[in-house]
Amino acid sequence: MLARMNVKWDRLCELAQGEVAATLKALPRALRDKARLLPVTLEKTPNAGLVQDGIAPDTLGLFVGPEYSEEGYSPSPLPPQIILFLENIWEQAEADEAYYLEEVHTTFMHELGHYLGLDEEDLFDRGLD
């Protein structure tokens, strides 16, 4: 799929990491301090296990683990983290780098919102759907 789009995985990662870093830098300090502790994993697409668990194959991002307010109190065995599915974001952006960066930003902020306890309606109201 990526070969067809003429962009290599390393380039998608480089662009995404830069956009996440820029997004973090632009956040208010209190939020930035919380968000910087949250690992961001870059994957091509959801793996077979995630798809089997009901995650759509074209999902752009995913937050897993306990929300910020539940850390230390949650029985979840997973630490909180954001997963960005870069090939899916690239496809959504129709192979346009500027649009890709916007989608990485929006997807990261959407998943960060979940970490902070926002639901889909809250995210929609903030333009992060």
Q: What would you say this structure looks like, in words?
A:
The two termini are 25 Å apart. It contains 7 helices and 3 strands, in the order αααβαββααα. Strands 1-3-2 form a 3-stranded mixed sheet. The longest helix has 19 residues, at 97-115. The protein is mainly alpha-helical. The chain has a single domain (2-125), classed as Zincin-like, CATH 3.30.2010.20. The mean pLDDT is 87.
Give a short summary of the structure:
This protein is mainly α and 129 residues long. It is built from seven helices and three strands. It has helices spanning 2-5, 9-26, 29-35, 48-52, 86-92, 97-115, 120-125; strands spanning 40-43, 61-64, 81-85.
Mean pLDDT: 87
In total, the number of domains comes to 1
Low-confidence stretches: none
Q: How many helical stretches?
A: 7
N- to C-terminal separation?
25 Å
> What structural category characterises the helix and strand content?
mainly alpha
Instruction: List how many beta strands DSSP finds.
Output: 3
Order of helices and strands: HHHEHEEHHH
Q: What's the CATH C level? A: Alpha Beta
Question: What's the CATH topology label?
Answer: Zincin-like
CATH architecture: 2-Layer Sandwich
Share of helical residues:
40-55%
Radius of gyration: 15 Å
- Quick one: biggest sheet? 3 strands, mixed
**Adjacency order of strands in the biggest sheet:** 1-3-2
Q: Which word captures the global form?
A: globular
How much strand content do the residues show?
5-15%
